[in-house]
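The protein record passed on for reference:
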Amino acid sequence: MAPEPAKKKTDSNKATNFAYGEELRIVKEKLKCEQHNGPNRWCYVSPNDPADHVKLGLEEISLWARKLVSLHIGFIILANIITER
């Protein structure tokens, strides 16, 4: 019997949403694109060429928010290590 493929994670997990919910809200707000509607309503706009929009979906936005949380936690741990010396 072949193993079942892993189910794709969704953004509907309340515990996950709570863990990075504020960061997700910030990322959504900052990357909201007035030019593009629908499910991919967020874009990364190139600072070199403002006409260059890269459409982003909820999966990419969620990943970005989780990475912000990880970086923040990493900086806190690093600061604690430095101040303990």
About this structure: The chain has a mean pLDDT of 77. The radius of gyration is 17 Å.
